[in-house]
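Hey,
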Amino acid sequence: MNDISSRILAWYDMNKRDLPWRDTRDPYRIWISEIILQQTRVAQGYDYFVRFVERFPTVEALAEAAEDEVMRMWQGLGYYSRARNLHAASKAVVAQGGFPTNYSAIRMLKGVGDYTAAAIASFAFDEPVAAVDGNVCRVWARLFGIDAPIDTTLGKRMIAEIAQELLPATHAAKYNQAIMEFGALQCVPKSPDCLACPLADKCVALAEGRVEELPIKSHKTKVTPRYLSYLYIHNAEELLLHKRVANDIWQNLYELPLIETAEPMDADRLFGHADFEAWHLLMPSYLYKGATAGIKHVLSHRVLHATFHEIELQGQLPCPEGFVCVRHDELHRYALPRLIERYFEGLAKK
């Protein structure tokens, strides 16, 4: 076995975290954990994983569930396409008679990319295929002093070749977990403890004083601001919700009636907006109770600036097509974006 691989495995034996998806060969549970941990810290994903597999203990249970329930269980994790893809893929797995057992077949599942397929194939079936996530890229870029940006074809190929070459053929599951854990805990993005690193004597980045510089990325995501004016239209018993169905953020989650504009909109501008005029025709008598402005929500490529306008009615709520009237005490049954949750949490504290 390569000396680098041996050192990483020895480090892992001493430092690995006790995580519920580590001591299993069940491809379903491994799959769920890997999808949850995409774009999610372990500390946050841990509780979601436990709740998710408790509610959907098998791929059959997930496939049989209603999409609204799956989305509700995912509520707060973000990147909701992950939940939609999980649900769709679970149906495909059941239809084909069971979970696929090799990298190529796993890679065909909806929402499963190269890394996730390699992780499942190696963790569940010990297939000797290297799992390369962001943590692994960082380790190899520093250790071998790779100048090619890791988000380019050349950089990805260089990392993949190194990862596969160093993968012990008979320890694929343990080794893939070890190198990812090493990147997550030891070779961290900022200010790693290089003096305590078992690979310090082999690290090109450390020898050249380039630890903070590597890995290199060529592209930065352009962040776009969006301005959302939500209408909290309610009476004593109910409020209005709308299910997002467009191919946009929060698809298939529920939100309050929304007016989106190119710039922030205060109450005066709201009352003169054509979309609000349409609502005014549906509720000629209402009490405007004020606005909660300045709620900011950051996504990977968008910054949402939200203002919530509270509108109280005494009589029956209007319920145009595409909207639902929901009892206040049943709001918890609906999967809401975290932004909407934060607003209601603020109201509850008043």
